[in-house]
Design goal:
The chain has 4 helices and no strands. It has about 130 residues and is an all-alpha fold. The radius of gyration is 46 Å and the shape is rod-shaped.
Length: about 130
């Protein structure tokens, strides 16, 4: 084959290409119902999607407020746990027989008979 014969030769389609190219025909009534059903379902799903997005947008500020409250409560819990730990230490100290005398001295103004109460004052200027 020469270049000239290739140019003038009609192009032949393969059998697979012929099968793929179908002439456009109008949809049958059954197909129209299927198309209408698909369009209806897509539209309904779109509306539901918009509703879900709107609900999420409205819930975001509420969620942020709840997060702030949760952080505040967690801080209070932490402070309370520290206070409980201090009170437990004090409680254990109060019931320790070895420290009962020292605790009694701290909590009452009384002194043992062999002790004297000393009060420091500023010297007066003359």
């Amino acid at each position: 084959m020469t270049a000239r014969s290739l140019q003038t030769a009609p192009l032949r389609r393969s059998t697979a290409a012929r099968r793929r190219s179908r002439p456009q025909t109008a949809l049958s009534p059954e197909h129209r119902w299927v198309v209408a059903e698909i369009v209806f379902k897509m539209g309904l799903n779109g509306i539901l999607l918009m509703g879900a997005i709107a609900a999420l947008v409205r819930l975001l500020p509420y969620q942020q407020v709840q997060q702030a409250k949760l952080e505040e409560v967690q801080m209070q819990v932490q402070e309370t746990q520290q206070r409980v730990a201090e009170l437990r230490m004090d409680f254990n100290r109060s019931f320790d027989p070895q420290q009962s005398r020292k605790i009694m001295e701290e909590q009452t103004p009384r002194l043992f008979p062999n002790q004297r109460h000393i009060i420091l004052t500023e010297p007066s200027k003359k």
